[in-house]
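Lab notebook: predicted structure, single chain.

Context: the supervisor wants predicted structures on file for every construct in the current expression panel, including those that have not yet been purified. This is the next one on the list. No modifications to the sequence; it matches the entry in the shared construct table.
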Amino acid sequence: MTIIIIGLVLFFAPHAVSIVNESWRDGVVERIGPGTWKGIYSLVSIVGFVLICWGYGLARQDPIVLYTAPEWMRHVVMLLMLFVFPLFLAAILPGVIKAKSQHPLLAATKIWAFAHLLVNGTLADVLLFGSFLAWAVLDRISMKNRSQRPITSAPPSKYNDIAATAGGLVIYAVFIVWAHQALIGVPLI
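Prediction complete. Output recorded below exactly as produced.
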């Protein structure tokens, strides 16, 4: 469990800097330059992500079960997950979906994490998905009180919503049929 916790701390530390102290972050970026900041941010995040994956895999070998979801809850999760990939793509394909949801990547993260908490009741699951859910909620709340930095995305277009929805549903189908089992080791159908 130690490895997943270290991974979560390393992954979320750079992701939470703006939530906790945006002025400190801006000062560091000004001092070392945006390229160096992005490099450090990326390196620490990647190391954290690798440790999360490794630690989660280790924790699944000897799970500590906190709760067991009823079998029908899987259907609720499948329904909730329909929205995740289109929202994810809407973050880089600006259109009506992005405008209405304001922060589609955070919305996708919250739905993904919440849905997985509904059916995964081990301590490792609660740490993993609970951390992502808490971070996304805190980040969204903090965005109301801080300036928004631009995110690289495609130019706005009336076709972006169609592309985000269609592409998201294709990714969803790939995850259901193949990718979830191939990447996570858990078949969905």
